[in-house]
Structure formats: C-alpha cells, structure tokens
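Schema walk-through. Below, the input block comes first and the output block second. Nothing else is stored per chain. Lengths vary across the set, and this one has 196 residues.
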Amino acid sequence: MKLHPQESLSQIFPIMNTLEQEIELKAQYNLNFQYNFNPRLGIQAEIEHQKADYRVLFALLPKTGSKAIYPQHHLSWSISSIFLNLIFRARKSEEKIIPYVFAGLGLCFIRGEDDFNQDYYRIDIPSTTDLGLKAGAGLTFYLDSINIPLGFDLKSFIQVLGPKFGGYPSSYYGSDSEIGGWNIIWGVEIGLKYRF
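--- output ---
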C-alpha cells in the first residue's frame, strides 16, 4: 500500500493515523508440469494465481474547531506467478508414496488498484513485477491399486516476493515512516497429479 497525500491534507488535517489494517488472501490456483531427469531428481514449471483484499481504516485529526474523520478503504489485488522448481524425491518416482522437497525461482506479477478520499489523498496498491523465491516440502500418494496413474499431492510452501518499501502513515506521531522488509506468503496446497 502507498499513500499519496495532497497539500490540502496537511493544511486541514495535520495528523493522519492508521487505526486498523487487514489483508485477506483468497484461494490460490496453480497448474504445474514436471519432468524427471532420473528416479529422484526432476524439474517443475508452475503457473499460479491468487487474489487478495486489503482493508485499512485511517483517522484524520484536524486543527482545532473541526471534527475528525475516519475514512476506510477496501482495495483488491492479485498475484500471478511463474516458477521453475527443482524437485528432489526421498523415494524413487515409481513408488506409491513419495515424499519430496523443492526450491525454485520465478516472476510474480502483482496487479493492484487505487482509491481516493475526496481531495485529500490517493491510496493505491501499485502494480509491479517482482522476483520470487519459493521452497517447501510435500507428499504424493498414487492410487496404483485401481490401475490409474492418478495421485493426490499435498505440500506446504513459503514464498518470498521482492522487498517492500514506501511511505506509511504512523499510528503514533502522525508522520510518514519508511517501511522495509520482505513480502512473505506461506500456505498449504492440495491437488491431483497424473503420471504419464
């Protein structure tokens, strides 16, 4: 989230505080294709998409004689990613139950939107392209007993996007603070896997 205040904001409301923030991630969908170099090592191309919501509540504190106002914003954004993962299996790929670990590198395309508060400021989630890292572990269980090369796949992961920077209205002093760090998403995926 980035805030773009107008000059009139500081003249009428010299203090702006953030009261509440909430980020809600929606379900993530992905499709992947895997090629095995040998029974234990493989490479995987992964395409995924995820939507999310961001809600924020501000307090605009005026000079004497005016009432405070409490604007609230609800912004939507989404992440589309392409990853290339290296996979190492603890058992051979022909086994019925196969534990594995993976790590990969990719590109994450973030699409955001913006909103306005009268003539005082604009708030937005910028659309960017970031380098991403992804790693995790999983378990594949194949249904060989029914003679169909179909299986279930369960994995947990952590995904790190590019560093985050930007101005942020302080909830203590009413001034901008610089925020840095990393954008981190973690989760659990379950899906179907077909073995050719």
